[in-house]
Every structure is written in C-alpha cells, then in structure tokens.
Amino acid sequence: MERPSNVFVFETPEQLALAAVERLVDYSNELRDTTEGFSVALAGGNTPRRVYELLATERFKNRVEWSQVHLFFGDERCVPPEHPDSNYAMAYEALISKVPIPAKNVHRMIGESNPNEGALEYENELRTFFAGLTWPRFDLVLLGMGEDGHTASLFPDSAALKEMSRWVVATRNEQSRQERITLTVPVFNHARRTMVLVTGKKKAQRLKEVLRRQPGSGQLPVQAITPINGMLEWLVDADAASLL
Ligand code: 6PG
Fold first, then answer.
1. What's the CA-to-centroid distance between 151 and ligand 1, angstroms?
2. Could you give the 3-state DSSP secondary structure of residue 56?
3. Distance in Å, CA 45 to ligand 1 centroid
4. Probe residue for ligand 1, chosen from 42, 47, 155, 222 as the CB with the greatest number of ligand atoms within 8 Å
5. What is the mean pLDDT of the chain?
6. How would residue 72 be classed by pLDDT, with cut points 50, 70 and 90?
7. Which of ligand 1's atoms lies nearest the C-alpha of 77?
8. Which residues are CB-neighbours of 165 under 8 A, at least 6 positions away?
9. Distance between terminal CA atoms of the chain?
10. How many angstroms does the Cα of residue 132 sit away from the middle of ligand 1?
C-alpha cells in the first residue's frame, strides 16, 4: 500500500513525541500574532503523555508564549479531576503544573458532575471562547486512536459519532462502561490543524484499515476526521506503521 503523504513515520515513540512537540511549538509561534491566542484541544490516553512531558521541559517550555495559549480537551472520562483515569489529571501532572500558563487559559471538562450537564457546560464555554462562530476553530487538535478505531470518545456505532449539531456531548465507552464527554465530529473537522498520534504494534492492523479507506466498509470513528479547511497529519511510530 502506498503510504499517504500526510503519514509521518518515526522509529520510536520518543522520536514521534519530539516531532509532535516541535510542530506544536513552531505552530504556536506562527499563529501567536495572527489569532486570538493559540487554542489547542488535548488528547487523553497514554500516547500523548510523553508529548506533554517534553513540552514542559526547559528545552521547549521557554519557546512558547504561555499567556497566549489556551488548553482545551477533546474528551474526558466522567471522573473527578484528581482521578487516575482523568485526562485533565494526566495533562495537569505532565504539563499544566509545570508551565507558566494562566489558570484562566486552562479549559477543563467537568467530568465529576452529570455527564449531560458537563457536556452542556463545556459547549457553553466553547461558545463563549469562539464567540460569533458557527463552529469552533481550534488552532490545533491532538488525537489518538484506539485499537477499535475510536478517537477522542467517539466510539464505533455510538450516537455521539453521528451528532452533527451539538459541539459537545455525553457518551459512554461500552467496553469499560465508563461515561465520557467528547467534542463532536464537526468540531474536530473545523480545526486548522490536527495531529493523530498512533504508536504500538497492537494498532498496526487497525491503522492499515483506517488509512486504506476501503469503499463500502463501515466508517470507523477516526475515519470521520476529515478537516474541512484544515491540515490533518498522522504521526505514527514504526510499530504502528509496520503493516503499511
Ligand atoms: C481517551 C482518548 C482516546 C485515546 C485513544 C488512544 O481519553 O482515552 O482521548 O481517544 O486517544 O484511546 O489511547 P492510547 O494512547 O492510550 O492508546
């Protein structure tokens, strides 16, 4: 299979994380003076953790104008913010607690209340931040991909995946029975730039299917990520790319 030109393969997860951070830092500086700050929707899960840790190191953190950065979340698990499953907790520990970002620039999803209320509250927060826009326009979205092809908390066959008017919805991971809050497909597809980070042999088969986009095959959630007027890049490690 010929590898699409927006798929970048790195020998190791560490090299992938470094490349993601370099892109993020450069991009934040390019956009800093041209937009209302630099808005990023963070991914949860394990893969992005190293990206956040690297970004918080001396090597990178001084290259970012943190007062201009706004951190959002692509999805959240419905747990309190200090819970080990919380995406906010992971980002806080790896990044937010280590960089001089103003507290008001960190836009956390409220995972500890009723999921529908948490989703509505986050949608209102986004509508305030992206005032006047039909859809939010994140400068950068980071995403991961699960072994089943899910991304953010958009799971296969879920109603959330088909949502075309709300910006944020409550949903559930049917495997773990965990309640979630997630941004919707149109929100992701209005971003300026999106990076999907995929590592590990276990995801190799799914990645191959996703990138092959066989006609007639059911659409996997991550295949719904098709930016309308933005750039989509896949950053994958050699293990995940081993079947491409
Ligand atoms: C989450 C996510 C989710 C994640 C994938 C990949 O909150 O779990 O945002 O979509 O990105 O499940 O997760 P890993 O990187 O842990 O494999």
1. 7
2. coil
3. 4
4. 47
5. 95
6. very high
7. 7
8. none
9. 6
10. 31
C-alpha of residue 72 to centroid of ligand 1, in Å: 15
Pocket of ligand 1 contains residue 199 by CB under 6 Å: no
Nearest to 143 by CA among 236, 215, 243: 236
- Residue 190 confidence (pLDDT): 98
CB of residue 111 inside a 6 A radius of ligand 1: no
Backbone angles phi, psi at 178, to 5 degrees: -90, 135
In terms of pTM, does the model score above 0.85?
A: yes
Residue 47 CB–ligand 1 contact under 6 Å: yes
pLDDT at 212: 86
At position 164, the amino acid (one-letter code) is: M
For residue 203 and ligand 1, the question of a CB distance below 6 A is answered with: no
Q: Which of 44-48, 80-84, 108-112, 216-220 bottoms out in mean pLDDT, i.e. has the lowest? A: 216-220
146 touches ligand 1 (CB under 6 Å): yes
Distances (CA, A) of 36 to 33, 60, 67: 8, 22, 11
Q: Is 95 helix (H, G, I), strand (E, B) or coil?
A: coil
Give the span between the Cα atoms of 209 and 196, in whole angstroms: 15
**Residue 34, token pair as written in the block:** 């041209």
Predicted confidence band of residue 216 (pLDDT cuts 50, 70, 90): low
Nearest to 48 by CA among 148, 136, 151: 151
Burial class (CB in 10 A: 0-12, 13-18, 19+), 80: middle
Over residues 105-162, the pLDDT tens digits come to 999 999 999 999 999 999 999 999 999 999 999 999 999 999 999 999 999 999 999 9
